[in-house]
Each structure stands twice: as structure tokens, then as C-alpha cells.
Amino acid sequence: MRLEGKKVVCYIENEFEDLELWYPVLRLREEGAQVDIVGPKENHTYTGKYGVPCSSDKAIDQVKPEEYDGVLVPGGWAPDKLRRYPEILSFIQAMDKAKKPIGHICHAGWVLVSAKILQGVKTTSTPGIKDDMENAGAIWVDEEVVVDGHIVGSRRPPDLPAYAKAFADLLAK
Fold first, then answer.
1. What is the set of active-site residues?
2. Measured distance CA(15)–CA(19) in Å, rounded
3. What is the pLDDT of residue 21?
């Protein structure tokens, strides 16, 4: 399996977009990666926008960027909550500085906006936050998946196959 030995954080909060969390997580696990679901609380059940539950493996204060090879941020309404945690923003900033893969889809771009890592980055998101992305310095394009260095962005659930593949490919390098 090409991702065996790779470790990824996937952040979670209530009202995550169910498919945007589960599809990439399952895809990476199928390829051998260890994906830790990380939320504000350890062993806590969070509920997605459509009612699908997911329990966290760890709390945000239990993960260190140097122990992981990549990070995923699903969309939905969860990113607006996730970006309020300084620990998450510093984790994202450290991953950016180390040029480790950072995946964001839909509204997850908000977390990268708050982490202040989008200046000059070509990426995409749901069109609803295009202005936020551009105001943070991103070069926003309307494409199903955009890879700029170590940052992988995507728009919405129909783009998940291209997004998950692009993130897995980047993680495999």
C-alpha cells in the first residue's frame, strides 16, 4: 500500500460536511495511511450536517505537526468553528512552513484564511467564500481540484474523487 506509514490529521467539529470528511478519510485508509480524527475533545462524537456521526480519536491539544505527514480540513459549517481554535491555526501554520500536504474543501478554506497562509496561493473553494479567499491573498480559480505546491483545494462533494486522489498522490511523494 503506497501510503503505509503516513499519518494524517483530519479535523472535526459539529456540522462537518459528511461526505467531505468520510470520503477522503476512507480513501487514505484504503491506501494504508493512518488518519486520526481530531476535534476539540478526545473520544467525543460530532454530528455532520446530514446526521452522520463521527468520533474523535484525539483532542486538538494532543497532536503535534512534526508527528504528521499531512492534514485534511473538511467543509460544511465546521470550518467556521475550527478556525476559532489557536491550536488548529498554529498546527496549520506549522504544516505550511514544513511544506506538508494541506487539504481543504468547500468552506474549509476559512481555516486557511484564518491561519494566514494563502498569500499568493492558487486554490479553489466553494464559490460562496471566494471573496474571503481572495481577500486573504489567494488566487482563486473555479476548478474541481487545484494543487499549488503542498496545498490541495477543492470546491464541493461532486469534486471528491479528484480531491482525494490529488491529496493521496501528494502524500505519496
1. 106-107
2. 12
3. 98
